[in-house]
Amino acid sequence: MSINIETRYASSPAETRTWDTAQTRQALHISNIFEENVINLVYTHYDRYIAGGVKPVKPVKLETADQLKSTYFLERREMGIINIGGAGTITVDGEVFEIGFKEALYIGQGKKDVVFASNDAANPAKYYINSAPAHHSFPTRRVTKADAEVVTLGALETSNHRTINKLLVNSVLPTCQLQMGMTELQPGSVWNTMPAHTHDRRMEVYLYFEVPEKQSVCHFWGQPQETRHIWMQNEEAVISPPWSIHSGAGTSNYTFIWGMAGENLDYGDMDVCATTDLR
């Protein structure tokens, strides 16, 4: 098998108050995402979301898994992919898509054969994968940064000057519920997603990357009045429950990919918490 899927269960705010560091990481932290020629995924019971990745030195075919109880992976699902490695191709039912660094591919529900490959085995692609249940089939489409809806927020004075690239969102292309994008922090800025917010209508997963060697990112989670933290290293991901804030600060600038799913495709649907009200 070229695919491994681990199941994570949903937890309530009351339950998480008793977690120690090990329990927190076991429930929310995702490591070992990019393994050569193996698709490593986490299936979370938050909105039945799947997150993970693959580093194909040789072509790797997407297979189904027992958790899905389906004859093929995308029988009842849609998928978003963003490449954070070398250039490569993703073949979807015989159609080949060239996917470069920081480019995305949306694959609609019902596509049967998906094959991940790299153009250069010495510099393999690193495909970060998100998937959510789908009720309708939309066209498969490649999205580059030039196609994205781009928003610049923050300022160097508040340490959060950042560029948000909305890649797989409903203002760019149709999806059922999956949305993905990439936020790049400018040199000298370290804070992301401030002011912090929650959105009970959807959950979220963050992948932190371009974290410089010997640097880290502190990811904050939990209810606004009872926050917690998880230390993240380069190319690691974290699950954010819908009742939790999802914010971070690094010891350097970095980039992160956000992916989310739920009942609301409105990107601006946020319950904002003032920074001074965080506890």
From TrEMBL:
Gene3D superfamilies tied to this protein: Jelly Rolls (2.60.120.10), pectin degrading enzyme 5-keto 4- deoxyuronate isomerase, domain 1 (2.60.120.520)
EC number: 5.3.1.17
Known pathway: Glycan metabolism; pectin degradation; 2-dehydro-3-deoxy-D-gluconate from pectin: step 4/5
Positions contributing to Zn(2+) binding: 197, 199, 204, 246
SUPFAM superfamilies noted in UniProt: RmlC-like cupins (SSF51182)
Cofactor: binding details: Binds 1 zinc ion per subunit.
PANTHER family attached to this UniProt entry: 4-DEOXY-L-THREO-5-HEXOSULOSE-URONATE KETOL-ISOMERASE (PTHR38461)
Official protein name in the record: 4-deoxy-L-threo-5-hexosulose-uronate ketol-isomerase
